[in-house]
Write a structure and sequence with these properties.
By secondary structure, the protein is of the alpha/beta class. The chain is about 40% helix and about 15% strand. Strands 1-9-8-5-4-2-3 form a 7-stranded mixed β-sheet, sandwiched between helices. A 3-stranded antiparallel β-sheet has the order 7-6-10, with no helix packed on it. Strands 11-12 form a two-stranded antiparallel ribbon. Strand 2, helix 4 and strand 3 form a beta-alpha-beta unit. About 50% of the residues are buried. The structure holds pyridoxal-5'-phosphate. Pyridoxal-5'-phosphate (PLP) binds next to helix 3 and helix 4.
């Protein structure tokens, strides 16, 4: 059993992807070929945003968004301590300082009231909040947008995991002033290498992102008006993504069925993920909480003994990472994130997970919980 079954997806899409890749190989437009713009338009249509600027990966997308807003040394950015390191790394890469607000214990996403308090405590130094749609579930963007607008700070949605999710009728990618996403293969919408994108309704910001992505270009790439990056999405990856995006709506439905099946059948001892009213999760991960760290170890060992993969996202909150030791944020600072980190683990999840395999996961966990 695979933790994320990319092979079954490939078998379904194989011929279409081969055709698309062959087109790129024979046309020879490997950098910024027509598939890149075609994919950007398709993605903008799917997410309901005006502008999509693709780039090399989801980490660059965050860095480019921060740079486009002029955020750098002396500025602080509020974010969640419970995320993949890239969210925080991007803030530090541009020279700004990350400040954390603890998570909501039910959704594991940043708590808007605590974000509000963190922004207020930061005085005028806070320039943006990065919300993360963790495990596929969008953060509470309605409240976050009000909080950020109230303080006049930017809201950047890190939708690397949330792609496909919804918050009150709007899709992930359309929930902040700008959103970023990743096409790393294991994400809900993944390519066959690295890729990323920035999504926004703001035409001026989109123009700045397009410049930053190609060496700070002005009229063309030999007219350099600022220091930028080399962060383009490969044409081959755009071609693959066009086929993957076409298959995505059906996969998203399948993800809901798999998640619902887990939620119906998993034992009571586990705390199962909840999706608040008005939200849709894209189930990038299906994560459960064990009663405590010792029980988590027992349950994961039982799964491993049955050849069932599982994983911990995330074992160490960001403020306790070695790379952040310079800020001296002690253990106990963000108690909800710290407690969840000791109990959480993720089960095999993919639109192609068979009922038979899923039943095995459920059986092994049910037996191990007795
Ligand atoms: C994967 C991920 C990223 C980074 O994406 P890459 O394409 O791997 O650079 C950023 N934020 C979150 C929350 C992620 O899960």
């Amino acid at each position: 059993m695979e933790f994320i079954d990319l092979e079954s997806q490939y078998l379904v899409l194989k011929d279409k992807i081969a055709g698309r890749v062959a087109d790129v190989l024979s046309a020879g437009n490997f950098i910024m070929g027509p598939e890149v713009a075609e994919f950007e338009r398709a993605l903008a249509g799917y997410c309901g945003v005006k502008h999509v600027v693709s780039c090399a990966n989801g980490t660059d997308a965050l860095v480019l968004a921060l740079k486009a807003y002029g955020i750098g040394p002396g500025d602080t950015v509020v974010t969640t301590p419970f995320t993949f390191f890239a969210t925080v790394e991007a803030i530090m890469t541009v020279g700004a300082t990350p400040v954390f607000a603890d998570i909501d214990p039910g959704t594991y996403n940043i708590d808007p009231a605590l974000a509000d308090a963190a922004i207020a405590a930061g005085g005028g130094c806070v320039k943006a909040t990065i919300s993360v749609d963790l495990f596929g579930l969008p953060a509470d963007h309605q409240r976050l947008a009000a909080v950020c607008a109230g303080h006049n700070v930017r809201l950047i949605e890190d939708a690397a995991q949330g792609f496909g999710g919804e918050c009150r009728g709007r899709r992930a990618g359309a929930l902040g002033d700008v959103a970023t996403t990743s096409f790393f293969p294991a994400k809900p919408l993944g390519c066959y290498g690295d890729g990323g994108a920035m999504l926004t309704d703001d035409a001026e910001l989109a123009a700045m992102l397009r410049s930053l992505r190609v060496h700070g270009k002005g009229e063309d790439k030999y007219d350099n008006v600022r220091v930028g990056f080399n962060s383009r999405l490969d044409t081959i990856q755009a071609a693959i993504l066009l086929e993957k995006l076409a298959a995505f709506p059906a996969e998203l439905k399948q993800r809901q069925l798999v998640a619902e099946r887990y939620t119906r059948a998993l034992p009571q001892m586990l705390t199962l993920p909840t999706v608040p009213q008005g939200y849709l999760s894209s189930w990038a991960q299906y994560c459960v909480l064990a009663p405590d760290a010792a029980k988590r170890a027992t349950l994961m060992a039982a799964l491993a003994a049955a050849d069932i993969p599982s994983a911990i996202y995330y074992a160490r909150p960001m403020h306790l990472q070695t790379a952040l030791a310079c800020y001296g944020i002690g253990a106990g600072s963000y108690p909800v994130a710290e407690e969840v980190a000791t109990r959480i683990f993720a089960l095999p999840m993919s639109p192609y997970l068979s009922e038979r395999d899923q039943d095995r996961v459920i059986e092994v966990l049910t037996a191990a919980c007795r």
